[in-house]
Amino acid sequence: MSDKPQLRFAPSPNGRLHLGHALSALVTWAAADHFGGTAHLRIEDIDINRCKPEFTEAIVEDLHWLGLSWPEPVLVQSERFALYAEAADRLRRRDLIYPCFCSRSEIAARAEDKDPDGAPIYPGTCKHLTNAERIIRFERGDPVQFRLDTERAIEETGMLTYTVIGPTLADRPQIRYARPQRWGDVVLQRKDMGTSYHLSVVVDDAAQAITHVTRGRDMEAATDIHVLLQMLLGFSTPIYHFHRLLLGDDGQKLAKSRSSQTLADLRSEGWTAGDVRRAVGF
Q: In 3D, which of 75, 46, 32 has the Cα closest to residue 208?
């Protein structure tokens, strides 16, 4: 990997890109230009049930239409499950991961607080199971996922900080404190895919020697967990930049799940790449 700054744009191919994605991609390439680095495309398709090859092809088409290019080969997460499992095993050998057999409804019924995303914080029910009880649940074939023992992890790492540049790329870097405890014991290996966003993104940022991460402001809180995992796994922590979000007429951020108008829709209506750039402030 080059000594130059390395950045990445990492969409999930579970739908077509919209204007919010265009903004995020353009911020990433602008940051690469600003810092004299390279912007990479990464395909984050660990959710193999929702991600489709045709959406990957559409992502490439849309980004090329915007005038963006990147080095090959592109990192594809669905080809790297063994590496995520290896990282999880490193944590498991230090008793930093434990199995959880709770359902979502059980967690919601017992949770007392919510995390920064508004989801119930896991109350730690399965953390206190004995080895014998865990063996019984495994042998019975109960669905299982694996959680980070966040309290134990923080005891190991101590206070954590990371560097943020913003609100513009030209601003002076600032030091922020990570607060992973507000997330509780997050899932690192999900029942349905054997990994999680938190684990896979940290492993891949390290593998690609990513030095600068550009993210929407809605992802800022998740950085708490990523900084913690980077320290636990012996990885470097990138510099972060959190960019503004594009909102719809209802004041909500654009999202695939809300069927926001796609770049393909706009292109079919006669929009040019220049129109998209101007619409998102580029």
A: 75
